[in-house]
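Feature request disguised as a bug: please show the residue count (347) next to Peroxidase in the output. Example input:
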Amino acid sequence: MSSSPTNSSLVTIFMFLFFLNLPFSNSQLSIKATIRRAPQQLSVNYYAKSCPQVESLIGSVTSNMFKEAPASGPATIRLFFHDCFVEGCDGSILISSKAGSKELAEKDAEDNKDIAKEAFEGINKAKAIVESKCPGVVSCADILAIATRNFVHLVGGPYYEVKKGRWDGKLSKASRVHQNLPQSNSTVDQLLKLFSSKGLTSEDLVVLSGAHTIGFAHCKQFVNRLYNYKGTKKPDPYMDPRLFKALKMSCPQFGGNVDIVAPFDVTTPFSFDNAYYGNLEAKLGLLASDQALSLDPRTKPLVQQLAKDKHKFFQAFADAMEKMGGIGVKRGRKHGEFRKDCTMHHI
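Example output, currently without the count:
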């Protein structure tokens, strides 16, 4: 992995990505959570008798989705993160807001509005196929967890076993979203506090942030780094000048195209690898919250290790995804349900 791409390669990829205005704009990933984990309640063979073909059914959908709409990959991974961090991994992000309701559902919160629609469509397609073979048995929450793993693998990341047994949550409120998700300008202190509230460690923070090895962010997520870093009216000094120049060309301070996007990983934007960490070392992180991980003494050593060892990153990422997948698991009719339609509560 080249940690210091040439000026021409940097500019070329940005010009290519920006001015084609790719539809991947919605696949920015965020990371953070709030809830106790209950991994002991989950098992790989949960559906062995009730729906033994569940993995292959979902796999047929995710492989087709990835071919037809590559944006569905990073978008679905982001969807899983945002689901788990808000009310636990319970599929509550999939519920549609009720017409006329005063309270919007999670899906319509500002932080979730630019998740690509393909992510939601893919889960709904998978649910429909699973329901046709195993009616009323498999939760939307488990389908999202399995689909996420599939997409991680489809984009070149590790394959790992998904533990199952989550029920679908009954609560979905947009008002609960913002404070439970990391923000593009979050400090390491804020990130560590948020992750800790979900039962996740500083190591989990660094490893799960590696999901930004794929996906894209809108200009609004990093424009302050270009023109007014921390209120200084100057650019972020921790950004490579070549990256700054390329971004500035496409993201003016005011009045820019809101659909323009930039890749989180400027060197290998379409591959799930460990280049993200080498980029941070080279001051090529896109978001302030990403770049901060390579500067803080609590997170820098692991950034350096993962930049050197792709195998270690893959193993750690698989472990961290399993850990995150156990956040706030719902079980029993008091707290959960099995939705036949992931967008609607069971009636």
